[in-house]
Amino acid sequence: MTIDAADIGALWLTLRLAAITTLLLLLIGVPLAWKLSHWQSRWRHAVEVIITLPLVLPPTVLGFYLLLAFSPNYAPGRWLAESFGQPLVFSFTGLVIASVIYSLPFMVQPLLASFSQNGRRLTSAAAALGMPPLAALLRVLLPASRPAIISACALSFAHTLGEFGVVLMIGGAIPGETQVVSIALYQHVEAMEYGAAHRLALVLVAVTTALLLLARWLGRAATAKERDIPVLGVPG
Amino acid sequence: MRALAVLGALLVLALPARADDCRLQVAVAASFRPALETLLPEFEAATRCRVMLTSGSSGALYQQALHGAPFDLFLSADRERPGLLEQQGRIVPGSRRTYARGLLALWLPDAGRGSEALLRRWRDTLVLADPEVAPFGVAARQVLQSLGLWEAGGARLARAHNAGHAFVLLESGHARLGFVAASQMVAAGRTNLWLLPQHLYQPIEQQLVVLRQARSPSTAAALADFLVSDGSRRRLVALGYGPGAGEGS
């Protein structure tokens, strides 16, 4: 089974995109979910709904609005291009931003569920023992939420790997820059190169399956370890 | 109780809509949909038939037609896919015809004149529909090849997934030069275009076929006749399509 260099380039680009996106989402998602899980305002629900929106909008529609948001014809787009020092459409940076928006719910929802379930109990226990809130987050809540964090990362990563509609709208299929696997696959199918399409799809599925199995395995290890944390043994 | 109400609402939404007596299901390449919609009212009034449209990329519609989608008529944006359907025995024999000829245009940065020289010296982003996917992309690639710019050109090529997307990218200012369909420029009332000389690319023949699975093949054939009639052809020329689209090859 052979895969041509362009497809390998697309695969590598996709993995890089998914890794960077997941990392950024982790940095954004943890504080966001933490804040939301503690927020007593009724605005909390509104913010939760807004975070869920990328699930509702069809990806190409989301991509279309990103096109408009990044457009140099309007002030916001000009400001964005200036801040990033380059136009965002047809660029890898643009794909990263789009992917972060697109996969945000896949990171935040599992974290939020976990934080809301264990969070208050754990943080109040930590506070009762005299721990400041930030330390409680870093040293108690995050370790206790490891399974949720791992599954959120796995979901975000997988979701970015399979991302198609958004990239189709704003990418420009530039090899080595924005031509990700899903686009390369689409081109093969449309050009009726089914052999190449099947091979690439097989590699994508194999890589994704391996990564998700790894994440599950890590998650299970984390759950097993978590049982040793005595604080969880204390009834609520 | 509330769960019952929600379930009821879901059931109502899931019920099939009432079917009309005479209904034609037409699969049309997305780029031709607006033009088709301007032609259809006349046909619908004359035949008292409702024409339902499914639009998408010719490639996707081809796949759907091949795998038994309930289309009566398929209007592709190219001639390859109707030809394939014919070879595969999926069409009513003899129904393949050219209904329109696409014209390739170059979106210009301003209302000035376009030229080969402009393409040669362009170093910025140049938008074209993806040649792997879209007929207008194939034509754009042929132009660049004719000018010796495909391998060696200085422009940064950004690929749109079809001519419509290329137009959106240019209109929203993400690039200042790019290949689009003349019909899109006409529809948008824009004049910053250069119609590419037709010796630079193969004609973009758009063909239609009546599918073998058609439920009303005679009505589908009537619509095909209507589309290739002189009256329709004149209106298509006014909409930015090429003249002289003849019968199928």
UniProtKB/TrEMBL annotation, chain A:
This is Molybdenum transport system permease. It is a multi-pass membrane protein. One of its GO terms (molecular function) is molybdate ion transmembrane transporter activity. Part of the binding-protein-dependent transport system for molybdenum; probably responsible for the translocation of the substrate across the membrane. Belongs to the binding-protein-dependent transport system permease family. CysTW subfamily. Pfam families: BPD_transp_1 (PF00528). It comes from the Bacteria. The chain crosses the membrane at residues 12-34, 46-68, 88-112, 124-142, 148-175, 196-218.
UniProtKB/TrEMBL annotation, chain B:
Transmembrane segments: none annotated. One of its GO terms (biological process) is molybdate ion transport. Molybdate binds at residues 31, 58. Keywords: Metal-binding, Molybdenum, Signal. This is Molybdate transport system substrate-binding protein. Residues 1-19 form the signal peptide. NCBIfam families: modA (TIGR01256). Gene3D superfamilies: Periplasmic binding protein-like II. The keyword Metal-binding applies. It comes from the Bacteria. It comes from Microbulbifer yueqingensis. Belongs to the bacterial solute-binding protein ModA family. It holds the Pfam family SBP_bac_11. GO terms for molecular function: metal ion binding; molybdate ion binding.
